[in-house]
Amino acid sequence: MNMDELERAILDLPLEEPPAGLRASILLATSYRPQPAFSLIELVTLGTLGAVALWFIVLLVSGGDTLFVHTLEAISSVLSHTLSNAATLAWLAAGAATALWLTVFTGSQPLATAAHRSVRSDSR
C-alpha cells in the first residue's frame, strides 16, 4: 500500500456530522469573546493603590498622627539605607539597562499579543 492508496482510504472513511451550532459556539468562546473590563496591569495598579490606601487608613485610625509619622520615618530610613549602598545601586542600574536594551531591540509586546504568536498555515 503506497501513500496515495492510504490517503484515498482515509478520505473514504465515513464522517459524522458536527453538532448543530458547534462552529458558532467555538467562535463565541474564542474570536468573538468580549474583552475584559480591565487589563492585568490596571487590576494590579488598582489593587496596589487600594491596599496602600487601606493601610494608611488603618494606620491613622489605630495610632493617630504619631504612629503614622514614625512608620513613614522607618520606611524612609530603610529605603535610604538600602539605596545608599553602591552595590545595590549598581545592580538596579544594570537591571534597568538590561530591561531597556531588551525593550528597544525586541520591541515591547503586550502579554496578550506575545501569547498568540502561532499562525495557522494552509500551505499544503
Summarize the structure.
With 124 residues, the protein is mainly alpha-helical.
Name the helix and strand elements from N-terminus to C-terminus, one letter apiece. Answer: HHHHH
Measured distance between first and last alpha carbons: 22 Å
Helix percent band = over 70%
Please state roughly what percent of the residues sit in beta strands, choosing from under 5%, 5-15%, 15-25%, 25-35%, 35-45% or over 45%.
under 5%
**Overall pLDDT level:** 82
Helix count from the secondary structure assignment: 5
Poorly predicted ranges: none
For the sheet with most strands, the description reads: none
Category from helices, strands and their pairing: mainly alpha
From the alpha-carbon coordinates, what is the Rg to the nearest angstrom? Answer: 29 Å
Number of DSSP strand runs: 0
Instruction: Give the overall shape.
Output: elongated
Describe the structure.
This protein is mainly α and 124 residues long. 70% of the residues lie in helices and 0% in strands. The radius of gyration is 29 Å and the shape is elongated. The mean pLDDT is 82.
Layout of strands and helices, then pairs:
Elements: H1 3-11, H2 22-29, H3 40-83, H4 86-106, H5 111-115
Which tags fit this structure?
124 residues, mainly alpha, 5 helices
